[in-house]
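User: I'm curious what two different proteins look like when written out as structure tokens. Can you demonstrate?

Assistant: Sure. I'll show them one after the other, since each token string lines up with its own sequence. Here's the first protein:
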Amino acid sequence: MTPALRTALVIGGLLALAPLVLPIVHLDVSIVSEVLLFAIAAMSVNLLLGYTGLPAFGNAAFFGLGSYGAALSIKYAHVHFIEAVLVGTLAGLVGGLILGPFLLRRRGIYFGLLAIAFGQVFYFIAYRFTSVTGGEDGMNFARPYVGFPNVHFSLNEMSFYYVALAIYLGIVALFSVVAVSPFGRTLVAIRQNEVRVRYLGINTDRFIFVALLISSTIAGLGGAMFALLINFAYPLTLDWHQSGDFVLIMILGGAGTIWGPLVGATIFVIGKDIISTITPLWQIFLGALFIACVLGFPKGILGSIAAFRDRRALVGAASAPDAQTPLPRGTS
């Protein structure tokens, strides 16, 4: 069994047992569901920023499109749970297809600013079209039942958590395969030196476009599930502040790591929930918590731990005697 698989089994087991521990720490299961969904959204940022090096500052656009896609399909088409999730995921993918050709023309900070600008366009559309989206007040809807042939059942908060957990672990598995594939290694090479990759005859725009589509689809899936978690869709899920939360979660956990988004989402969501019940100035204290984590872990929590482990391994290898070095002649 590889270390990566062993880690995945341990984390998956802990997450599966989490609902049994939550009453002890006075947390609701919906909070942990939110952690998983925010981790999914942060993973979409991680693919672009952590692996490809593109400032994905507008991924809330895809997250919000997924949220509204699910909500609108439930309200106007009366779809079931699975269909609503698929519509929301497809909405995120379509958003990536629409914005991709425009974003590919820019790199660096201009890519990020353009992504924010397009996200704000979607935000104002949702904000102004009151008759369709509910405008500033958002949209309430009842969570639909899961529909299979001859089988219909509703999801309570506990069963919804396990659905979210299964989706999260599935995305982690997909993300792990992509990260070690030639496609994922090419994305890392683009982050390190795109000009050199172009000189090798590789069309970097094509790789970035596919990465953007994967990212937007993952974000749309997370947004659809989030709307179904809270039975509500609202314009702020499209706002640039929401994109900033996803970027902070990814950086806090560790950019370019598989489990970093989960660590960052756990600190962000649970920290926000606990601190906001203590003081109305929770944003100040949450910001101070982020600053402390960034100063203490410059590469994110998991990224800094991995870097420290690698340094220890290098020091140990350098200090260990080389048993394969032949003895000089004349010695025994």
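Here's a second, unrelated protein for contrast:
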Amino acid sequence: MSSHKFILSGGGTGGHIFPAVAIANELKKRHPDAQFLFIGALGRMEMEKIPAEGFEIIGLPVQGLKRKLTLKNITVAWNFLKSYFKAKQIIKNFKPDAAVGTGGYVSLPVIYAAQKERIPSIIWEGNGHAGLANKILAKRAQVICTGLPNMDSYFPKEKIHFTGNPIRDSILQTTRKTEALEHFKLSPEKKTVFITGGSLGAKNINKGIMHALPQLLKQNIQVIWQTGKSFTEKVGKESGYVSQFIYEMNLAFTAADLVVSRAGAISISEICALKKPSILVPSPNVTDDHQTKNAEALSNKKAAVLIKDSAHMELGETIVKILTNPVKMEKLSHAIAPFAKPKSTAEITDLIEKELR
């Protein structure tokens, strides 16, 4: 039997890149002799991240559409055409058995070219609001995997599989809570809140928590706080564990009674998989305000508490309200359970295997 070949495309942000890597790794586990080729956008973060994960990548000159009426879109259109024809050539030479798109504008010319060559295509949409590329590709895709339920207002119902979002295996490696607290040198006697604004931090979440610290200390609440690089405030040791970047995310989640986070697709999936009570503060600076839609998918089912970025000064009060109310904590944990998809990567890979020609 000849070895399988897979083309994967998605990029611009970690939310598109790392799910593609997770899927490729799962395929590689099942098909050790398979060949993989990633296609990314020149100058974007995938051109550096994908080779670091051990996969080959080719870059296209594709750019994102400018949302305002501007002459720059003429260049964007020209670069799209160039990228489409280049992708078509790559696909003809490589002859993949399946093409997988994880969103971002680079996936549009690549997966569209694969569809035109009659290569089975599988797309994944992690957010509660579908991106433009995926909306266009959905018509010809064989399979559409979604990170959140109820996406049939965007995609043909019969193609949708609610698989959840691929999350890092390391997140699911559980330890005992006492060990996790010990790692951060925290007290088992206090309630713990884990705050993360993503790898770059989130200015307003940081401001809100800084303002809330005296209130949290008073209530015997300690923090594990990933602040991101731009944070320069001095925080006393008595508040808990404060760091620009936390590598042991699984330990931070295990130690936490409550999580405060942005509402990116992957962050939400991790919180769901671990069934953690959470406060979601969507970033207002994302395309189509999709983080708010992600957060609403949970808050409408009372599976998380949503606080607007502009209301960040209310964070302290809300943290105290939730952590001092065991019934509320229990309800949040219970309501989030149906959203949990810890085997997401395996489910997506099963669907890809079904489509192999």
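A detail about the second structure: The mean pLDDT is 93.
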